[in-house]
Design a protein that fits this description.
- It is built from 8 helices and 9 strands.
- It is an alpha/beta fold.
- The strands form 3 sheets. Strands 2-1-6-5-7 form a 5-stranded parallel sheet, with helices on both faces.
- Helix 4 crosses helix 6 and helix 7 crosses helix 8.
- Bound molecules: 6-chloroguanine.
- The site of 6-chloroguanine (6GU) has 12 residues, from strand 5.
- GO terms for molecular function: tRNA (guanine(37)-N1)-methyltransferase activity.
Length: about 240
């Protein structure tokens, strides 16, 4: 409760319910309770100007799908920017830069960020031209809305904020953190239905265990993601 807030995330979206569980449960919920991160979800319908609270309209030039209008998005985001300075306004969209670990690390060190989740066919281009500083996609597939992508990004960033993970080491050993996939893990029992834990892990020789884990990580990365190795030449 008494920790200082390191990162504030404002999520602007059309379907806030999608984000409830991510923001309130597990590690992200605990980080918020500890006061390490501050997460606010804003419903674009609250910024609609008509009494039907509509926030989207048909596209100029015709075609299928609805486009989120400028007015509610500008009103919400400019209202936030009047209260504090934001380092980034990030639009979640399948045609954005594909999210990778390095970007999550960078964003975890920001002070205030806004995440804008699109919906339907996306937002009016003028929102992107004027308000947005960065566009991110969470992978090469299409979701029905950006809310789940915003939830994924929030989870990935928050766990990297210093103090959020209990064991300070654990984020450093993750897949991707050192450019390699993670080594295999085992817990008790040492023999489960005849499937034995590798002897090396029971040996108590920590130098050899560290070497074994590194070798395993390297082998797995070579097999599954050789593209990661070409970026750091295998060590
Ligand atoms: Cl950020 N949004 C949507 N709607 N679909 C996606 C995505 C984002 N990233 C991958 N697919």
């Amino acid at each position: 409760m008494s920790e200082t807030v390191r990162l504030r995330i404002d999520i602007v979206c059309a379907v806030p319910k999608t984000l409830d569980s991510v923001v309130t449960t597990s590690i992200v919920g605990r980080a918020r309770e500890k006061g390490l991160v501050d997460i606010h979800v804003h419903n674009l319908h609250d910024y609609a100007t008509d009494r039907f609270r509509h926030i989207d309209d048909t596209p100029y030039g015709g075609g299928a799908g609805m486009i989120l209008e400028c007015e509610p998005i500008f009103s919400c985001i400019e209202g936030l920017q009047a209260q504090r300075t934001y380092d980034d306004v990030i639009y979640l969209t399948p045609d954005g830069e594909r999210l990778a670990n390095a970007r999550c690390v960078e964003l975890s060190m920001r002070r205030n960020i806004i995440l804008l989740a699109g919906h339907y066919k996306g937002v009016d281009q003028r929102v992107r031209d004027v308000l947005v500083t960065r566009e991110l996609s969470i992978g090469d597939y299409v979701l029905t809305g950006g809310e789940l992508a915003a939830a994924v990004l929030t989870d990935a960033i928050v766990r990297l904020v210093p103090g959020v993970l209990g064991d300070a080491e654990s984020a450093l050993d993750d897949s991707f953190m050192n450019g390699l996939l993670d080594a295999p893990h085992y817990t008790k029992p040492a023999d489960f239905r005849g499937h034995r834990v590798p002897d090396i892990l029971l040996s108590g020789n920590h130098a050899r265990i560290r070497q074994w884990r590194h070798d395993q990580a390297l082998t797995k990365t070579r097999e599954r993601r050789p593209d990661l190795l070409s970026e750091n030449d295998g060590q």
